[in-house]
């Protein structure tokens, strides 16, 4: 699929350092720099996501002639760059961070830009697109008449997803627009919060911009889709990723949405796909995953759970894990999981596979498939990730996750809990939490059978 990204190319710089003292003349942290990472930002980040997803990508942009602009083409490996000249300086956004926590951001080149040059090659690239993502960062590229005409023509042929900017141009008619909550408020003046606010803003933008669809992204609450002024909006949600670095999340959402639409997915399905892709991006560490070596997954493991473990451990937090079948989740399960989550900074559930359950419980079990059990567990606020294992015990999975605390609900001791010895190998502890009698899958299944 020939994906074309149209928009403003920025230079993103992440400076990581250690903070152990304040300056003697003011309560200002002193950052001892450990590393510096540069990446293409803005439209360049969208193009990078699409390239990593396996698509042929062309970036249509305006490039400055200063020294910082010369750093950008090498950061766009494998991406075709079709650029007009920008008479303005390159925008550089530098984030200062320590222990994965932001300290400050320094912006350069953000003054009001002059109009960029538009070339025939830029317009030809848009005309050849199978899908288009517009990443507008307010640098005046998308307000140029020739670019707007080319994008409006493209919208009549292929999916065009437009991520608007408060200082950018109004999207052309017929495109799918993806403002976040703050942008939706700024564009419409609508007051409020949550889904009612997002829907009212989407309705107003749909009419004012004559859009094909409006998707208001709502952070951890997913995204709201409007494709008409009649009927009901669609709200698509995904797994909640706590303490995530959300830098680049909007770009990841727009790129995933465009790919889904370009593949023929219905808007409702495409928005759900994009929400899940964005949640996975955040769980993997956000933009840091572009430089990191991908972790080796556990057999059958959910990579998002492993990413949570790595992130919590890197920040000095406590990793808690528990395990079980969790077939027909009941109140006893919920209380055990809540008690376990309270012991640390994340809770990973190691879940018996369907084959493992059959060996342990008999041929009639599980009642629910592993896929359904995973969905239910991940829907619980106290669960940060789920890993499915196929052995009869979770010992091998525990060795790879290496939790600081292993939790079981019930009357266990070291002799009856084989995992206890394994946990000690890296200094972890096995603990039990109170058992709640009268709650069991067997009892629940029997009660259902009686009333069925």
Automatic annotation (TrEMBL):
Pfam name, any one: CTP_transf_like
Residue runs in coiled coils: none
Pathway(s): Bacterial outer membrane biogenesis; LPS core biosynthesis
Alphabetic keyword roster: Carbohydrate metabolism, Kinase, Multifunctional enzyme, Nucleotidyltransferase, Transferase
UniProt superkingdom: Bacteria
Record bears the keyword Transferase: yes
Carbohydrate kinase PfkB domain residues: 3-277
Domain called Cytidyltransferase-like: residue spans: 322-413
Biological process, per Gene Ontology: lipopolysaccharide core region biosynthetic process
GO molecular function: kinase activity; nucleotidyltransferase activity
Entry's transmembrane regions: none
PROSITE patterns per record: PFKB_KINASES_2
InterPro entries listed in its UniProt record: Archaeal_FAD_synthase, Carboh/pur_kinase_PfkB_CS, Cyt_trans-like, PfkB_dom, Ribokinase-like, Rossmann-like_a/b/a_fold
Cited PANTHER family: BIFUNCTIONAL PROTEIN HLDE, FAD SYNTHASE
Name recorded for this polypeptide: RfaE bifunctional protein nucleotidyltransferase chain/domain
